[in-house]
Design a protein that fits this description.
Elements lengths: L1 H17 L8 E9 L7 E5 L2 E5 L27 H11 L6 E3 L5 H4 L2 H8 L5 E4 L10 H13 L3 E4 L5 E5 L2 E6 L12 H4 L2 E6 L2 E5 L5 H11 L4 E3 L10 H7 L3 E4 L9 H10 L3 E4 L14 E10 L6 E8 L13 E5 L2 E6 L2 E2 L2 E7 L2 E7 L9 E5 L2 E5 L9
Parallel strand pairs: 3-4, 4-5, 5-6, 10-11, 11-12, 12-13
Antiparallel strand pairs: 1-2, 1-14, 2-3, 7-8, 8-9, 9-10, 14-15, 16-17, 17-18, 19-20, 21-22
Helix pairs in contact: 2-4, 4-5, 7-8
């Protein structure tokens, strides 16, 4: 027994001398805050008590024009949206933003930036943007107000137009996509022109899609590849193509909207039921001191240490979400998402060869393993040939 106690004592001092640590609780290595600010974007990136911001919500309610002087308005004004962002940053103790990314010149993304500049920008802040170009909805005055507010506060103005741009923020790597003007652009508007942000931390990847439209996400889907988390394009307005969702297959998706709208049901079902992901949405606009502590969805990046191994594992976790969105449990029948048709039975996407009631009576349909209906082609299925018309129907039943 004496020898046993001596062994324990020696082991204790050996451990102390070698500073060996047994596995502890997971350490938070970074947080992405999706701030509640209505149907708009304002996303705070945090690591090691340093901060960056992607977009800045709406300007003050009642402001007819976004002008540089709006930044001088104080927190006592009974306004919402950007004030929710200011309150939340103040709650976290943020006094300075290391960087700001202006994804595109729409008021629900950069309208609040003069106010953000007034409070949190100085000569150390890097402001990433694309040159404004005239398009069908002329927002040049909005862009100029934001640009001038950053310039007046001394921010480093970094134009990423026409070139691939990357930078590191602590241990996170940022790639700004869609910075080049494509030869076949149709100048539909600022959504086509917006910057997508790909964040890589160790082996985890997060993509903030801003308002990227389908033609743009088709350009970048293969480059982006499989991701762990997605900020869905355009507040869940079905702007993400099926091909994009099928390629990226995020484990977590955030919709920056104050409600789940009808047009978001299809992509939510695809993400949840086909890929096993979880979908959350931000709440309303939080401006009071009472609710500011829970006025964001937080995407935590954790590092977990495994016993007897130096290998480190990094994983994501959502908090303050109110739970995964449960939609479409009573969804039934044919549903089309962009050009792809699916069939739902009690909210579940069916696959394989199915005999269903079509427009002209019963016929056979074939749904690929990823759920979409085959149209206008012939297939050999279980040693039998089936030809499907342009509506997906084969009458050989």
């Amino acid at each position: 027994m004496k020898n046993f106690f001596l062994f324990l004592i020696n082991l204790f001092f050996f451990i102390q001398s070698k500073q060996i640590e047994f596995p502890k609780a997971n350490k938070i290595k970074g947080i992405i805050h999706f701030i509640n600010c209505g149907r708009s974007d304002s996303i705070l990136i945090e690591q090691n008590k340093r901060y960056g911001l992607v977009d800045a919500s709406y300007p003050f309610l009642g402001a007819k024009d976004v002008v540089e002087s709006l930044g001088n308005r104080g927190a006592k004004d009974p306004d919402k949206s950007v004030q929710a962002v200011v309150n939340y940053l103040n709650y976290l103790g943020v006094t300075h933003l290391d960087f700001i990314i202006a994804t595109h010149a729409h008021i629900d993304h950069i309208g609040g930036m003069p106010q953000i500049a007034y409070h949190f920008v100085d000569k150390r802040t890097k402001f990433y943007y694309k040159k404004y170009r005239i398009n069908k909805s002329n927002n040049e005055a909005l862009f100029n107000a934001v640009y001038n507010s950053m310039k007046k506060k001394g921010a480093q103005l970094i134009d990423v137009t026409g070139k691939k741009y990357e930078f590191d923020f602590e241990d996170m790597h940022f790639e700004l996509l869609n910075t080049e003007i494509h030869k076949k652009e149709e100048k539909r508007g600022e959504n086509q022109n917006c910057i997508g942000t790909l964040i890589t931390y160790k082996n985890k990847r997060i993509f903030l899609a801003a308002d990227l439209e389908i033609k743009e996400d088709l350009i970048y889907k293969d480059y982006i590849g499989k991701i762990d988390a997605l900020k869905m394009a355009h507040h869940g307005c079905s702007y993400s193509s099926f091909e994009f969702l099928n390629t990226t297959r995020p484990k977590y998706t955030v919709i920056t909207n104050s409600q789940v709208t009808d047009f978001a049901i299809m992509p939510i079902n695809i993400l949840q039921q086909m890929f096993g992901g979880k979908v959350y949405y931000v709440g309303g606009v939080s401006t009071t001191s009472k609710d500011v502590a829970t006025s964001a969805i937080k995407l935590y990046i954790y590092e977990k240490l495994f016993e007897n191994s130096e290998k480190k594992k990094y994983f994501l976790h959502m908090k303050n979400t109110g739970g995964n969105i449960n939609v479409g449990s009573n969804l039934n029948g044919f549903k089309t998402y962009h050009s792809y048709t699916f069939y739902f039975k009690n909210g579940k996407i069916i696959t394989g060869l199915q005999t269903l009631n079509g427009e002209n009576g019963k016929c056979k349909y074939y749904f690929e393993p990823d759920g979409h209906m085959v149209k206008g082609t012939c297939l050999n299925i279980e040693k039998k040939s089936y030809c499907f018309d342009n509506n997906g129907c084969c009458y050989d039943i």
